[in-house]
Amino acid sequence: MPTAPRRNQTVVLLACPVMRTLMGPRLAAAGIRQIYMDYGLHVRPKRMAAALQAELDGLSEPQTVLVGYGLCGNGLAGLKAGHHTLIIPRTDDCIAILLGSCDAYVKAQRESPGTYYLTRGWLESEDEPLSQYLGYVERFGTESADHVIDAMYARYTVVCFIATTAAELKECRGRAREIADFCAHRWGMRYEERVGTGAYIGKLLDAPQNIAALGNDLLVVPPGGTVETDMFARYQGRETAGVEADL
To answer: So what's the pLDDT on residue 171?
Structure first.
């Protein structure tokens, strides 16, 4: 059973900035400190644990730290709690968080297994098919760029932009459609849009008050613990054929 944080232990959010729109207002109203990392950590997940570790090590007093990331390409693996208590979504990436649950993500993937998801974070970090292709052309030439980009994305049939709010969807739609048009022309992908839900984030934000009774969607790393990849294997023994993480 998870260990409850010490009485009056301060709560801090350490998160990907894609979560800011959904988390920020509620945490600001509660006076909870928010630390948002760089979007680029998704592009280089091997640097993620070290960057988050530096932030954790800079917190002098024991904290309950809400980690606004999934496993993210094993980016959290090796993160050490130190004298803090970490509460982390038990999910592969932010798409499940934005969809509201891991079950919703699995359902979406079963219904449309060839979906490539875009978020505002991927747009702003330029880690998406169009920007990648243009970068490859500049570095390696058109022939090599064509080969690499087709190997990465030709298997997808849908490109879906998932926003945190309707306002964000409207703001980012132009760039998302530009990328979708490229994907449609090159691979025949169709374009879809979705507005996420705050259900998963609500569970994370409420977790410090209910840490002894958390469900399967969240994991707790107690003081002295280390984040390990197998902590995220929440679907062991369940049929997940055809389901894969696309980010």
So the answer is: 95
For residues 71 and 123, state if they share a domain: no
Task: Name the residue type at position 8.
Answer: N
On whether both 191 and 108 belong to a single domain, the answer is yes
Does 92 lie in the same domain as 34? yes
pTM, entire model = 0.81
Q: How far apart are CA 156 and CA 190, in angstroms?
A: 10
Residue 17 corresponds to which tokens in the numbers above? 């900035």
**Within a 10 A sphere around the Cβ of 121, how many other Cβ atoms?**
21
Cα distances from 39 to residues 11, 218, 229, in angstroms, run 23, 23, 22
Which strand (E) or helix (H) includes residue 150? helix 142-153
Average pLDDT for runs of 10 along the chain of length 247: 54 88 79 87 85 94 92 92 94 88 87 91 88 96 97 96 91 97 97 90 84 79 94 56 35
Q: Which of 97, 69, 79 is nearest to 13 (CA)?
A: 69
- Cα 140 to Cα 28, 94, 135, 154: the distances in Å are 46, 31, 8, 19
